[in-house]
Amino acid sequence: MTQHPYVGMWVTADGQIRQELLANGRYDEARGARRSAYLGRYEVRGSHIDYWDDTGFTADGVFVSDDELHHGGMVFFRERPKAR
């Protein structure tokens, strides 16, 4: 998989859904206290992302900027490391 600029953690504004896009083309999504609620693979083409969950469902989304992802009716924001 070609490296893309969207690898990293994406979080809803309320922090309830956290989706990590891994460099190996896999994702790990947590919901509330439920870690790894959804796992699967993804592909990014331009600003479009396609998901294939390990349970068989598919989804997609679009990166509207380098820091904002729209997916499944939700808006995710890139989580930046906190300064020390």
From TrEMBL:
Xref: InterPro entries: Atu4866-like_sf, Uncharacterised_Atu4866
Pfam families: Atu4866
Source organism superkingdom: Bacteria
Name the UniProt record assigns to this protein: Atu4866 domain-containing protein
